[in-house]
Design brief:
The protein has 24 helices and 26 strands. A 7-stranded parallel β-sheet has the order 3-4-7-8-9-10-11. A 5-stranded parallel β-sheet has the order 14-13-12-15-26. With 671 residues, the chain is of the alpha/beta class. The structure holds flavin mononucleotide (FMN) and iron/sulfur cluster. The site of flavin mononucleotide has 19 residues, from helix 10 and helix 12.
């Protein structure tokens, strides 16, 4: 959410509007991170050129009565490239420690480097305060450089910036002194601290208590933002998924709170705050003075507004899938899997659902998440929508996945859509198999085909590109067969997982929990490979191992015989035969089901095939399609179908929000 070229890379209008939408809905304090070292691709607070855009972000947030803090950081372990089209720059750290996610070893900062870093904290704070920011936080958690200096695990120095507790604290103290000096009475100063590193020889709760106490005694901080977790190795502590064990950050923080002077406000982001009662309890019991939410508000900008108005059921509940983090890290466009409007506020924000002058009659075929999003958005734009679903329930694949152990957030997603389509007055026809006649019966102007996809029954995949011999045997099933039919094979079961996502792993877990002897085979060299980027793979593998599921990597099915399955090593071709197999589940590829599309072609103004029916992909893609194409309905000159849209020059509004924040119209808060 930054724009411009290196050297003048600045916060974009989109960034301002992202925060503006949340501030307008009652978020009291917004805090975003800002690198202090000019890092390629990110708007650093040290660039003077970035100041007008930081100032515009501050003005926009202030216009809703909220406060804005900047979190100054440098990540010790993710240096990014030197510049465009270059290899990564070396990581900087307190000592020459090896990075967790690579063989690379960090550069141990020299004293001159430390001085430069301190200057950068000073200049960063000066610039943000000049831009109107109300507070500065130094980030000393999640594996940032300041944490590395404070931590006995990372800091092995023998000079004045290491050696003992006081030496390890010196960088943090001097950085806070510089920031305090710049802030004066104008801005609050605090730090985000990893208060329990959970590493052998790492920072402990006792250390954190002493640190906060020492900083408070020296009047260096006004608030302490207490957290846990190192990135990337402890993402399950930083941004836990639904499959991670519960993290008791409350217990960790409560003890520190007791020991810290009352004038120091404590902020905690406990993780997965999706209902306000959770936050209120933490404040009422004295664990913390302020509660932070990140993903809850990425998914639902109006979390607070709904709670205040007694309509919390209208809030989308973050499903903790970490698509937001994964997309951010991959640089593939930051967004939310279940809310396509999030991080696209300028184009698709809450105030952009103006009722169309000419309402259209719309029929949506298929009530999976793509169809539900299309129906919701079309209805919100003032169209008369009928949603036809052949199953007796809403949610399609997502509803089926919610049967899998630990995947129940999918159910909350389906429930939210059910509430939405009902609130919006969508006519929902469940248990109706759509035909051309039924669809055209209501004389629609636009039709959306969101009839999803089904797993290949013959085992074809992108890897083998041909059916698996023996896939037609009775003992062979697809995930659809099992999930739709609630049929759970017992005995020895082989599951072939070509996707590396939740479906095969969830079925393996479910069957194993019911007593089956399960082997999960993938041709990849890593189980559940598709869940690595969302930091879910470790928890999923742990759950499978705890249930005794045999994990076989680098293998594929050669042939399925009667009660036996031949598998081969994808590198050496060596074949092994598994005997006594009672069932095989093939989660290879999904094929689109868009049967009505050809028959309906040319019969209405607009006909969009979306989601898996267009091309089977992921949950986020399906919901995005639903949103994108519903927005086109009834728009003058808009595309008539997917192909028409795909081959057009990209529309200008795609770039809305990508201008420098400094150029946005100040008098037009759109939220
Ligand atoms: C996309 C994304 C970006 C994040 N960036 C930062 C960051 O820059 N600084 C930080 O202290 N925490 C960052 N976090 C961690 C959050 O502050 C928070 O501690 C964590 O996500 C758990 O809270 P939640 O469940 O409310 O999201 C980020 C989290 C996400 C999901
Ligand atoms: S992408 Fe997933 S984890 Fe992130 S906010 Fe959206 S639902 Fe939550």
């Amino acid at each position: 959410m930054a724009t411009g070229v290196h050297g003048t890379r600045v916060p974009s209008e989109g960034l301002a509007r992202y925060y503006g939408e949340r501030a307008a809905a009652g978020v009291g304090l917004v805090m975003h991170s800002v690198p202090v070292i000019p890092t390629y691709g990110r708007p650093s607070a040290t660039y003077t050129e970035a100041l007008p855009s930081f100032a515009a972000v501050a003005r926009h947030v202030h216009s809703y009565g909220s406060r804005l803090f900047g979190q100054l950081y440098y990540y010790a372990s993710s240096p990014g490239p030197w510049g465009p089209n270059t290899p990564p720059a070396p990581a900087l750290s307190a000592s020459a420690t090896q990075r967790f996610d690579s063989h690379s070893v960090a550069h141990e900062m020299t004293i001159a480097g430390v001085q430069k870093l301190l200057d950068a904290f000073r200049v960063g704070a000066r610039h943000l305060i000049r831009a109107g920011y109300d507070g500065i936080e130094i980030h000393a958690a999640h594996g940032t450089i300041v944490e590395h200096f404070v931590s006995p695990y990372f800091n092995k120095r023998r000079d004045g910036y290491g050696n003992d507790f006081t030496g390890r604290l010196r960088l943090l103290v001097e950085a806070l002194e510089a920031v305090r000096d710049e802030a004066g009475e104008k801005a609050a100063v605090g730090l985000r601290l990893n208060c329990d590193e959970r590493l052998p020889g790492g920072l402990t709760v006792d250390d954190a208590t002493s640190i906060v106490d020492r900083l408070a005694t020296r009047n260096l901080i006004d608030f302490a933002d207490l957290d846990i977790g190192l990135e990337p190795e402890q993402f399950s502590l930083v941004s836990p998924t639904a499959l991670d064990p519960e993290v008791d950050i409350e217990g960790t923080v409560a003890g520190i709170r007791q020991a810290v002077p009352r004038q120091i406000a404590v902020l905690v982001t406990p993780g997965r705050v999706t209902r306000l009662a959770h936050a209120e309890r933490l404040i009422a019991t004295g664990v913390t003075d302020m509660v932070g939410s990140v993903r809850g508000l990425i998914a639902e900008p109006e979390l607070l507004k709904h709670a205040r108005e007694g309509t919390e059921e209208l809030s989308r509940t973050c499903i903790a899938c970490n698509y937001c983090l994964a997309s951010l890290i991959a640089g593939s466009g930051f967004g939310c899997a279940i809310n396509p409007g999030s991080a696209r506020e300028t184009r698709w924000g809450l105030s952009t659902y103006s009722k169309k002058s000419s309402s259209r009659r719309v029929v949506v075929v298929g009530a999976g998440v793509a169809g539900l999003e299309a129906a919701r958005v079309a209805a919100k734009c003032g169209h008369a929508v009928t949603l036809i679903e052949q199953r007796p329930f809403l949610g399609g694949q997502a509803a089926l996945w919610s049967k899998l152990p630990g995947r129940d957030p999918m159910r909350t997603l389906c429930e939210w859509y059910a509430t939405q389509v009902s609130e919006m007055g969508v006519e929902v026809r469940l248990g109706v198999r759509a035909t051309t006649g039924i669809v055209l019966d209501s004389s629609p102007d636009a039709i959306v085909i969101a009839s999803g996809a089904r797993y290949a029954t013959d085992g074809e995949s992108g890897f083998a590109g041909r059916p698996i011999p023996g896939a037609d045997r009775e003992m062979v099933h697809t995930p659809d067969d099992l999930l739709q039919g609630d049929r759970w094979p017992a005995g020895r079961v082989i599951i072939l997982d070509e996707e590396g996502l939740h479906t095969a792993a969830g079925i393996a877990e479910l069957l194993a929990a019911r007593g089956a002897e399960v082997e999960l085979i993938t041709r990849h060299q890593q189980p559940v490979v598709g869940l690595v980027s969302s930091f879910e793979s470790t928890s999923v593998i742990g759950r499978l191992k705890n249930l005794g599921v045999r994990l076989t990597q680098g293998a594929y099915i050669k042939e399925i015989g009667s009660g036996e399955v031949a598998i081969y090593d994808v590198v050496t071709d060596a074949v092994e035969v598994r005997h006594g197999i009672e069932a095989v589940v093939l989660a290879t590829m999904r094929r689109p089901e868009a049967v009505l599309a050809a028959e309906l072609h040319g019969k209405v103004e607009q006909l969009f095939v979306i989601g898996d029916a267009l091309a089977p992909r992921g949950l986020a893609d399906a919901i995005f399609d639903g949103h994108k194409f519903a927005r086109l309905i009834g728009e003058p000159g808009a595309a008539r179908d997917f192909t028409d849209d795909f081959f057009r020059p990209l529309p200008d509004d795609l770039y809305a929000g990508m201008k420098a924040a400094a150029t946005m119209a100040e008098d037009s808060p759109r939220n």
